[in-house]
Amino acid sequence: MALEIDGNEQETEKYCKFCFGTESDNALSFVHPCRCRGSIHWVHHQCLAMWFSKANAVQQVMCIQCQTRYQKQLTLKSWKSWTIPRFGIDKFGLLEITVDLWITWRTVSGFVGMMNGTKGIFREIILCTMWKCFVASGRRFCYYGNLGLRLASSIFRVSIDDYEERREIKARLPTDMHWEEISQSSVLN
């Protein structure tokens, strides 16, 4: 169903890209979390929360279609609503975390040893390369960020900012201001 706006612009009825529900089907609220357009433009807040609980770490940070990073807001819950977080880590995930911690510890202690003159530089170059390739990758940072967000969601309510509202706020800012610094501060509240 398309509605006529200002002569030639068309606005279609909102459809959730996950459950395909419409505005007329139920009273769930919609959000537009990324730059996607067309049939994947809108999503219910509740459907997006369910998606985040099941999606992998990278998909919880950014939209896989348009590569837009989601802007999440944390609001403190009342202490009676606090829960024990569900990390959903299997045995392989525990093994990965253990190996990451071990490589990080070996890299840091080896670097300290190299600075003290007790470790060789060639060995430390190999350890630093391993650490960069396996631990300090973008996917691992997303994974650990996701674990941190799950921990935070046990005491905070997580909400997703609407992409269009972020664009409007950014358009009103002076051009010499950095959006990333401002969006992380509480100045806009």
Automatic annotation (TrEMBL):
UniProt keyword Transmembrane, yes or no: yes
Matching InterPro entries: Znf_RING-CH (IPR011016), Znf_RING/FYVE/PHD (IPR013083)
Keyword annotations from UniProtKB, A to Z: Membrane, Metal-binding, Transmembrane, Transmembrane helix, Zinc, Zinc-finger
Domain of life from the UniProt record: Eukaryota
Any one cellular-component term (Gene Ontology): membrane
Gene Ontology terms for molecular function: zinc ion binding
Membrane-spanning ranges: none
Membrane topology designation: Multi-pass membrane protein
Domain RING-CH-type: 8-73
Cell compartment(s), UniProt: Membrane
The protein's name: E3 ubiquitin-protein ligase MARCHF5
